[in-house]
Amino acid sequence: MQVLVTGAAGFIGAALSEQLLARGDSVIGIDNLNAYYDPALKHARLRRLDAAGGSRFRFHKLDFADMAALEASVDGAKIDRIVHLGAQAGVRYSLENPAAYVQSNLVGHANMLELARHREVEHMVYASSSSVYGGNDKVPFSVDDRVDHPVSLYAATKRADELMSETYAHLYRIPLTGLRFFTVYGPWGRPDMAYWIFTRKILAGEPIPVFHKGEMWRDFTHIDDIIRGVVAALDHAPADDDAVKAGGSTKPHALYNIGNNRSEKLTDLIAILEQACGTKAQIDWQPMQKGDVVRTYADIDAISRDLGYTPTTTIAEGLPRFVEWYREYHGV
């Protein structure tokens, strides 16, 4: 099977591509290698994929929001399935550069839907986000909750992607699965994420920025658990049978939360990182940031029922693994 993976040089995209290659699939990877964070990390991930896949891994540097470039890159290639993970990420950055989100997350997603339609792919899995729940104070967050009030442009673009996908599933009967990712962490992760920033600053003896007096909770999910869930989703396309799917659609379109089914307080994460780093953190208390939310917490009943997804990694296990990788990668 040949799978097209967008965001293949990103955290989740690279880990997924590695797993697909390990089980014998071929992967066409797409990424624009932008400078939202250090491209050197993205290149390092790609080197691992080249080594793992050999001729079964092909990479194209391009912006999938450029339809002509996207079509040219896969001209003549057979595409069985698509995992569309590429996007402009980050809630806070959406306050600074909204145009990047419109181009990548809206135009880019529409292009991927068009590609899936014209190539008649078996299934397209795409990345949504827990951010679509906005300031929802009902926990845990369920895919059956209303998500009409996003508190950031990033969240609004991800909800728009879900709505566009529903339309394509209705009009063209394309099997589509949207995954609402909760906070993903682990080796080869993203440097803009809190756990990475905290680790870097704790090891460097610098103060760490902690928002809202530490009164924040996140559903932290280890990358290994996430990848098992993404692969399970990819291998189980929603049926075009008029039955109600997770998320409420009667079309071949399912929506799932993919998280750890528990919400961890930020100060608990800091304590685990302090122990793993072997030093006490200096705290720089900061006010709540615009567009941020106090709590995320995934109800994973639907994905567990339909796909057998069962996360097993606690932050007490996963965070020390990340710190160990971080030290090795950076030589500190």
Which features would summarize this protein structure in a list?
332 residues, alpha/beta, Rossmann fold, seven-stranded parallel sheet, two-stranded parallel ribbon, 13 strands
Description of the structure:
- This protein is α/β, with parallel strands linked by helices.
- The chain has a domain at 2-182 and 223-259 and 299-311: 3-Layer(aba) Sandwich (Rossmann fold), CATH 3.40.50.
- Helix content is 42%, strand content 17%.
- It contains eleven helices and 13 strands.
- It has helices at residues 11-22, 39-53, 67-73, 93-96, 98-119, 153-172, 194-204, 223-234, 266-277, 301-307, 315-330, and strands at 2-6, 26-31, 57-61, 81-84, 123-129, 176-181, 184-185, 207-211, 217-218, 221-222, 253-258, 264-265, 282-286.
- The chain has a seven-stranded parallel beta sheet with strand order 3-2-1-4-5-6-11, sandwiched between helices. Strands 7-10 form a two-stranded parallel sheet. Strands 8-13 form a two-stranded parallel sheet.
- Strand 5, helix 6 and strand 6 form a beta-alpha-beta unit.
- Helix 1 crosses helix 8 (223-234).
- The mean pLDDT is 94.
